[in-house]
Amino acid sequence: GAMRNREEVDATLQTAKLNPAELLPAVHCLSFGPQAGTGECCLLQLEPGLCAELEAGNSLVIRGEKHEQAVLCSKDKTYDMKIADTSNMLLFIPGCKTPEQLKADEASCNIIHSQIAGFSSNYWELRRCRPKLKKLRKLLMEDPYEGPDSQKDQTLAFSKYTTEDFLSLIQASEEEILCHLQVIDACKIEGYWRILEFDYEMKLLNHVTQLIDSESWSFSKVPLRTCLEELGSLEPKEMIEHILLSYGRKYIDDAGEVYFEMREEKICRAIAQMLLQNAVKFNLAEFQEVWQQSVPEGMTTRLDQLKGLALVDKSSRPETILLLKVEDLPEDNQERFNSLFSIREKWTEADITPYIQDLCAEKQTVGALLTKYARSSTQNGVKVYNSRRPIS
Amino acid sequence: EAASLARSEGAGGLAQWVLVELQGEVEPRQSGGLAGSLLGDLHYTREGIPVLIVGHHILYGKVVQLEKPFAVLVKRGAGEPGPAEPRTHYAVTALIKTKLLFKTRPKPIITNVPKKA
């Protein structure tokens, strides 16, 4: 229709019995724009920090395959998306000025024709969530790297993934993905992210620990250069360096030489895994003896090194230990607790903590999780947790 | 499958829009739908109170600074056809930090093209 003019506006004011003297001179004549009813426009409520990110020119990405619930990712955070329904009508209007803006610009024109771009009674709401990273390891485990001598068919390209592939498959921000790749000791081989097959990883580690022993180096000062020289004929240099990065802390001395401080806990843990994966469970005392003998000379094994890797049963006679890796358990909170309670009916907080720690949301404690998903009772004077409902 | 909310290119930063929140639903009076039809006149009193005249109703509201701003997403067309699933791309076209909240709810608001005086 034809645009309203000042006479029409004033006539309406008169009919409405409003005194123009009490109003600012400028009026917005609101009409619906051509796209208004089409639903092409929608609202996303921003959590703190996201507004600033958008204003700084960063993008937000929605990720999720058809069977997954969509998440929104900034460059370093992940959010669940949910529709929030209001009972009201929300109109979004470009070029609509606030009273402050109008007062600041007294010379602005008298009639502002504003087109409503769209309207909705709902909007997307965001809630910060844990990035869904379990799939990352699952994809990498499809084709673990077994070393250059592996007989495996090298043309299975479909099971190899680049960073770009992960960005479209994993429901997490780029930073969370890259951080997790580092945590799980993934490495890039020929442009693809790979995880080492465990036996190959142990073979590499063994080369290094044997060299440390034969050279009588301190565990806190392992020189990269010499490792590459001595072991470079046995394994690819990238792999030697990768195993040092995985199991040591890199530093550079004043002369610019690269050294590694070997991580005792991680090495002992890996060797424990190597021993435990060969049977369902072990006699604890026997295991501890073999374990101590198997680690490099000079390293000391301690059961608390195995948190989240192995579970000790102190109630059985003799006491036993079995392999239980937290990364093999379900990612969803309820499923994780169901799984843990089907493995063991009652848990102490100390025993269960390593297996639920990773479920904690920002500022959430293990105690809060236990309150929500478990029921507590006292057994022999000790507080224990069991399932809230019967496990089928 | 990922849909990216890339920022719209625009001279210097994202546009700032305003949200108007009304009670009830907006219904078109003409059968042709809403596009092009007038909603009403928005005035402000000298004290900064928004006053909306819609048809025969006067609504008084207030200016609210949003604690959580909104981003306005606009759907860009589906992706290229082909073996991959068509992707829906959204672009962030504007930010909304301010809303005009009208709480009074007389009757359903009907759009109207006022007669000339």
Automatic annotation (TrEMBL), chain A:
Record InterPro entries: Dcc1 (IPR019128)
Any GO BP:
maintenance of mitotic sister chromatid cohesion
One GO cellular-component annotation of the UniProt record comes to:
chromatin
What Pfam families does the database record attribute to this sequence?
Dcc1
Which domain of life does the protein's organism represent?
A: Eukaryota
Enumerate the UniProt keywords alphabetically.
Answer: DNA replication
Q: What PANTHER family does its record include?
A: SISTER CHROMATID COHESION PROTEIN DCC1, SISTER CHROMATID COHESION PROTEIN DCC1-RELATED
For this chain, the family text in UniProt reads: Belongs to the DCC1 family.
What is the protein name given in its UniProt record? Sister chromatid cohesion protein DCC1
UniProtKB/TrEMBL annotation, chain B:
- Localized where? Nucleus
For this record, the Gene Ontology CC terms, alphabetical, are: Ctf18 RFC-like complex
Keyword list (alphabetical) reads: Cell cycle, DNA replication, DNA-binding, Nucleus
Q: What GO annotations for molecular function exist for this entry?
A: DNA binding
Q: GO biological process: what's one of them? A: DNA replication
Please name the InterPro entries in this protein's record. Ctf8
Domain of life according to the entry: Eukaryota
Pfam families reported in the protein's UniProt record: Ctf8
The similarity annotation says: Belongs to the CTF8 family.
This one is known as: CTF8 protein
Which organism is the protein's source? Trogon melanurus (Black-tailed trogon)
